[in-house]
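Progress report, Aim 2. The chain analyzed during this reporting quarter is listed below.
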Amino acid sequence: MKRKMGCLGMVLFFALVCCAGPLTMSMSASSGSGGTAANAAAAAADIPARMLTAYIAAAESVRSYRAGCRGMQWQILAGIAKVESGHAAGRTVSSDGDVRPRILGPRLDGSGAGGNTTPVPDTDHGRWDSDPDGERAVGPFQFLPATFRTVGKDGNSDGVKDPHNVDDAALSAAVYLCGSGRGRDLTQRQQLKTAIRSYNHSRAYVADVMGWISRYRTTSSAASVKGVTGKARTLLAAALSQRGMPYSWGGGSANGPSYGICCSPGGSSGEHIRGFDCSGLTSYAYAQAGITLPRTAAAQAGVGRRIPAAAGMKALRPGDLVFFGYVPTADGTIHHVGIYLGNDKMINALRPGTTVRVDPVSVMSDYAGGARPW
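Predicted structure tokens for the chain:
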């Protein structure tokens, strides 16, 4: 009884949110479901598919190493890698992520070549930079060997940390950008710029990377809604632009991400997490298209044309709200909402501990139909 009434009880107490999934929902949604949409989207941005796979995986895995880090998105890593190596341009990337031939920067001897004016003594005896007498930046993310030795991670779980492997390098870059201790909040523009500046102490560099991040965010969102027009396109692009934003119980509104409240039926608090819960995300996305939604998932089911579960997903159009309820025919039991993207997928703020991402609609078993609020 507690499982089925927890979220509904929260509405009675707070009249605010209703987004917790049933505790028996599938827990097997993989990062690949979001990666499929992002791969298709970023093709227009000329990012090699294998490189993009590494960026997506690193952005989703970094919280295992920096639990307090917020807002890491693949576009941030793509921006760094674009400026550092052109996404390993001119190299071959194996299925295991190894980049060959190796990417080696100029010797950091203070000669001015490549912009270096301060000599850096050798630290790896040529292990990673093939230069036993000097130091060079290495790999697609151009780590100094000493830095990689400190933050390097095994991104492809092969037991080796290698800056010349894109999985290892991307995850290590994500860890480095998140900072030490509690971790940065990269949803805050100033903190994101600080993180990029820590990679290279240059205003021009920060501006260059920020420009690429913005371009990738815009390109990936637009490409993902190709063929969709009008308000549906606007709200889908808005929702997709928030991929990577943390789930926050009670977080988000028509104005964007925000800190949430305590606590979900499972005891998770959003008080210190800036992001979205499910209905916060839908409220924000629809507001960008000029449509005001009520704040709870159950209330949103009453807006516009209701599409019953019995009609199946073929009755849905991109941009429709999709609902999940303990009793699919009773709107009062609805506990979750997403935004239909097409091809049986939805943009989703699933549960505490996840980020806004693209999931199959079947990630939850109690589909309760949809609604078209325009």
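The chain is about 35% helix and 10% strand. The chain has a mean pLDDT of 85. These observations will guide the mutagenesis work planned for the next reporting period.
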